[in-house]
Amino acid sequence: MKRKQLVIIGGGPAGLAAAVSAYDNGIKDILIIEREHRLGGILMQCIHNGFGLHRFGESLTGPEYAQRYVEEVKKRNIEYLTDTTVLDLTEKKEITMISAKTGLVTVRAKAVILAMGCRERSRGALNIAGSRPAGIYSAGTAQKYINVKGYMVGKRVVILGSGDIGLIMARRLTLEGAKVLAVCEIMPFSSGLKRNIEQCLNDFNIPLYLSHTITEIRGKERVTGVTVSKVDKDKKPIAGTEKDFECDTVLFSVGLIPENELSKTAGVELSPKTKGAVVDETRQTSLDGVFACGNVLHVHDLVDFVSEEADSTGKAAAAYIKGECKPDKKAEVLPGENVGYVVPQKVSVNAKDVKLFFRVKDVVLNGKIVITRDGEEILSVKRQVLTPGEMQTVVLKTVGNSAGDIELKVVKE
Question: How does pLDDT run across 232-282, given as a tens digit for each residue?
């Protein structure tokens, strides 16, 4: 059995940034494990620009952003393995992995950072009527076919879901000569960033149908068309509102799920709201010495925020390995009125300047973020617009050493 001070599972933007941060904070014995052929993660197929505006102050493509961190990893001679799949993670921080080059290997680490990213929700989770013809893709799969493999997925396309990948693919397909007939969203608001709605749909006159969903997919060998229906407030299709579209391709952009199978086998406590690990402000999970960051923890809007979170996680893991982390009493952070989730879910009572990440359940105009402890208001911040498609943040200066839980809610002014 090999031994390492720090093992990072995942060589995408979160894993790379965490490795660089841990190295710069004194931990040199690091191993990054990546299942793909090269480092960089999902960014390697995201050839559009807009990455790095917060992090580097310039607009980069996904591969350019990833390469910045790949170069930093190589500059520090941080060890990494590609084409390597992790099969198992135990509560003792033992990682079993396999590759054609190394065979089956087990590594025991002093600390582990989970950075496995997320996967797309598939058609199977949606119960849409119809057979199983060719021409049905998740938006990310279509993105990989077009941007990496050079294959065109279709000519007449309907997209279900207004997540950012779906919006970006609407533009990408249009630029490649396809006709995007519609983007349908079951919610009364888009789940994507406002800038993507403007740049990817409005600029190309692609219609967005809010409160609509696909109720039937037609075709035997290949998709020949879909039926789209309006839905009521309970998201049930309304009879008589059907629209038929003749198309050969359907893309699904209906949400992302953190990739936490390894976390489950290790016994990491997962949140039913985020589907990621329950963590404290250092991003340490319920397992001592196991940390999580990036989209495996909760789905981020911008990779810049993934890197920021990974920076602090790498620093915290380094402190843990050096024995600088002292056990502290923790307060629960609970989502209140109109809040879907809050990360971190636990905060040490002596922590300072803790940034809380959260999403609202519905669009709120002229809202106010209110944080209470034992029913007493400890923070109040006004925000003009809060939407579910954009992650919100607020900084909690001090936690306070009282016994009660912390609640974050959003109310209308």
Answer: 999 999 999 999 999 999 999 988 999 999 999 999 999 999 999 999 999
Closest CA to 190 of 179, 202, 178: 202
Q: φ, ψ for residue 393 (rounded to 5)?
A: -135, 150
Residue 53's CB is within 10 A of a number of other CB atoms, namely 13
Q: Does domain 122-254 correspond to CATH entry 3.30.70.20? A: no
Q: What pTM does this model have? A: 0.94
Assign domain 328-413 one CATH number from 2.60.40, 2.120.10, 1.20.1250, 1.25.10.
2.60.40
What's the pLDDT tens digit per position in 9-27?
Answer: 999 999 999 999 999 999 9
Q: Along the chain (413 residues), what's the average pLDDT of each consecutive run of 10 residues?
A: 95 98 98 96 94 93 97 97 97 96 95 96 74 92 95 97 93 97 94 90 96 94 96 94 96 92 96 96 96 96 94 97 88 94 93 93 92 88 91 88 83 86
What's the CA gap between 151 and 174, in Å, rounded? Answer: 14
In 3D space, the residue among 247, 217, 251, 256 whose CA is nearest the CA of residue 142 turns out to be: 251
For the beta carbon of residue 37, count every other beta carbon within 10 angstroms.
Answer: 9
The residue written with tokens 């489950």 in the block is: 264
Question: Taking the domains of the chain in order of start, what are their residue ranges?
Answer: 1-119+256-325, 122-254, 328-413
Whether 122-254 and 1-119+256-325 are alike in CATH topology: the answer is yes
Q: Kindly report the CATH class assigned to 1-119+256-325.
A: alpha beta
